[in-house]
């Protein structure tokens, strides 16, 4: 199956001389959730804005559903829904009229049955006659998604979709995004919440200084670039680590009861067996063992530092 989005050597330099994107190339699969991560000013929003037709690239090209975003922009934009960072809605309009208007902007005929389905999927149907200024921030973000889905797009861009939303609403939004993916919609999101990307994404893309540093399946990324930490709980406290264990890169806790050991998951040997044998030789009793996988945040920071 061909990718739903094809990007080749996409570049953007603004009139001020600021280079926002440099030679970005990637394919986005239909029906996946792709999370784009990067520091502020990395180029994430510029990338989305180009694909949505809001910003003109200075180099390269891209296609959505086989339609070039420049030569066949009307067909390309029909396939796209965009949920921007800012909550910009008409405060005195009702939810239904707002969504109905967005559908009309895309040249689609009135279809209140489809809009009802969209609003129900976002738990907004009971609010259909409410004015937008009566809604909470979380509900307004749901309205933005409903507007983006009003014309039945195949691709949905979410630019910081849960910014300023509390933890409960954030998790509810995650469920909404998963349901969209299950219905066949391709979702591309930018986020500063690495927990969000780790929870939802199928693939992770990392952008920094306008360059795409990496695009990888999430599980493979965590395996290849992640590290694990072994924590050994001792039966009796140690005042200091024996000299024979000094070369293992161990860290002893302040109370002397826990020893931490970081190791690379890509290495042929973890060194754990040798380490435990060293404990036995020194007569150090082990009460318990615990391993912890590094988080996506640690992987992200490591890759950005390496790409700097």
TrEMBL record:
Name of the featured protein: ABC-2 type transport system ATP-binding protein
Domain ABC transporter: residue ranges: 5-234
Positions of transmembrane segments: none
Record keywords, A-Z: ATP-binding, Nucleotide-binding, Transport
Gene3D superfamilies: P-loop containing nucleotide triphosphate hydrolases
SMART domains: AAA
Domain of life per record: Bacteria
InterPro entries in the record: AAA+_ATPase (IPR003593), ABC_transporter-like_ATP-bd (IPR003439), ABC_transporter-like_CS (IPR017871), ABC_transporter_ATP-binding (IPR050763), P-loop_NTPase (IPR027417)
GO molecular function: ATP binding; ATP hydrolysis activity
């Amino acid at each position: 199956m061909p990718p739903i989005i094809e990007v080749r050597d996409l570049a953007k330099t603004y009139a001020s001389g600021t280079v926002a994107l440099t030679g970005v190339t990637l394919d986005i699969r239909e029906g996946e959730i792709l999370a784009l991560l990067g520091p502020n000013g990395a180029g994430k929003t510029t990338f989305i804005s180009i694909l949505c037709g809001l910003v003109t690239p200075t180099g390269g090209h891209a296609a959505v559903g086989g339609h070039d975003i420049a030569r066949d922009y009307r067909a390309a934009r029909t396939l796209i829904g965009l949920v921007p960072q800012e909550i910009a809605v008409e405060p005195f309009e009702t939810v239904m009229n707002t969504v109905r208007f967005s559908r009309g902007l895309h040249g689609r005929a009135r279809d209140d049955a489809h809009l009802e389905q969209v609003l129900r999927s976002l738990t907004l149907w009971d609010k259909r006659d409410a004015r937008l200024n009566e809604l909470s921030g979380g509900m307004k973000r749901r309205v933005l998604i409903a507007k983006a889905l009003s014309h039945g797009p195949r691709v949905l861009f979410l630019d910081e979709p849960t910014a300023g939303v509390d933890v409960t609403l954030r998790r509810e939004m995650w469920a909404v995004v998963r349901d969209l993916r299950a219905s066949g919609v391709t979702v591309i999101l930018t986020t500063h919440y690495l927990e969000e990307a780790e929870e939802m994404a199928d693939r992770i893309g990392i952008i920094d200084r306008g360059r795409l540093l990496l695009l990888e399946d999430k599980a493979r990324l965590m395996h290849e670039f992640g590290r694990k930490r072994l924590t050994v709980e001792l039966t009796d406290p140690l005042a200091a680590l024996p000299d024979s264990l000094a070369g293992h890169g161990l860290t002893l806790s302040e109370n002397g009861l826990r020893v931490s050991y970081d190791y690379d998951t890509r290495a042929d040997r973890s060194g754990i067996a040798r380490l435990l044998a060293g404990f036995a030789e020194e007569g150090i009793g082990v009460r318990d063992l615990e391993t912890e996988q590094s988080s996506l945040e640690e992987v992200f920071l490591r890759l950005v530092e390496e790409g700097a």
